[in-house]
Amino acid sequence: MPFSNLEELQQRMQSGESNAVAIARSYMMRIQEQNANINAFVHLDQDSVIAQAQASDEHRKQHGARLLEGLPIAIKDIFCTRGENTTCCSNILKGFVPAYDAEVIRRLREAGAVLLGKTNMDEFAMGSSNETSAFGPVKNPWDTDRIPGGSSGGSAAAVAAGFAPAALGTDTGGSIRQPASLCGLVGLKPTYGSISRRGIIAFASSLDQAGPMTRTVTDNARLMSVMAGQDAGDSTSMPVPHANTWLDACGKTDMKGLKIGRPKEYFIEGIDPEVRQRIEDALAQCEALGAEIVDISLPHTKHATAAYYVIAPSEASANLSRYDGVRYGHRTEDPANLDDLYSISRDEGFGEEVKRRILTGAFALSSGYYEAYYTKAQKVRTLIRQDFEKAFEQVDIIATPASPITAFKIGEKTNDPLTMYLADIFTIALNLAGLPGMSQPCGLANGLPVGLQWIAPAWQEGTIYNAASAYESATTWHTQTPEVKS
Amino acid sequence: MDIDVHKIARLARIRLTDDEATTLGPQLVSIIGYVESLQAVDTENVPTTAHPHDIFMPLRDDTVTNSDNREALQASAPALDSGLYTVPKVIE
User: Taking the model in full, what pTM does it have?
Assistant: First the structure.
């Protein structure tokens, strides 16, 4: 049961074999027993979970089941949840209780989901290892000496450890796909604009997107079809075409006629040879399923990380200026003047990585440097977009590794921020281009999960669901689970 | 490249202790040194991208959508007086 997927849980509730309350209780018991070992959850209000589950069972009796009826979903601590702690795992938001739900949370509730607590993450989603959290690092259930990836590391670890059947994450430069890859899950970063950002604590607004982290491709499409859609509360959200076809897109069992691009820039020196082999094996499997593999080039790939580390910190430095110690969040005691109130509150409240990014952004936006850094990075962003546009004239979808390496050891990269930044080299480019991308399990390397990344043109999540479900139907990697000790 | 970390920290309204400045200064230099590689890219006549899709700002109907929720919204404020946020004195 801890490793059941959403479809299985739903069948058990439909047949009357179980109900939402019993399912919620069993996950909470497992969390209570084992969370100390993994540190995936940072807030869990048991009474609230049971109340939601009871309401869902009642709804099922009275009116029948909605799309997510009674299904427990773990929520990254970046989503505002009305009346419940939301801290983005930062001391500056310690004790913050939002007065409203994020639009995505509203949609989940409306579809009958049971929100199962808030999961650990890198502070303000800035990190690739979940080591920058104010609540301490998360451990990878596959090997508790190792990181789960980040920034949605708590969400990934929660699902991988069998604490929840699915979770929500957010992805600014790889924060859903990289932890999904390192923990053996299906994680989707949808097309920019698919999911409302209202009520999701902002990091880099032109890159941030929420998305589902699940055990199977079908579960992923089920959650996505609830989460996606335009919202008047987020002017960058857009009408989403074909959202009602995603679940059906998961019935695919072959890849006949599918042209898969294999970009040479993603199969470079420095990638773990075992990881590379798993991806090559996966591509061979795709060929066996009828796909044609086409060698392509995305020539500006090598500049994506540099462009990202100008654009994301610049947007972050603007977004995080709202934490001023006045309206909410941490406020220093007895500041001498207004300037001290701002600067000491921010020094005390923000962790090291967050300060590093704010300062990087403030530098890139400062007078005399703006053109050379920020404007330049925005132009390179255009070139990266155009690379993908050209590639998609030749192929339907692109396949790459999601991460060049498997999960590394806790503490291994914390001394050198720049090495840590390079953990995201394969996930960043598509955030800059606004494209959808998914990581799905494609085997183990040295006993640790490896993720195959799919990249599609904007609004073509259906193509990803087609390809990923065909691959899933021919393999058993998604059914592998770690042994979690309490 | 030389970066005045104290000046940047002032712009960002973050107090830096001497210890922090000693660590963050060189790290900032190394990060900026890395993104410096962008200068090598030919971007002659390339437009900027601020938003991934070519769209216009959508307009919604001009109707009132937010109601008074002051008490709930101020519940998380660190210091209030009669429903107003308080800060140290700014005018002598």
Answer: 0.97
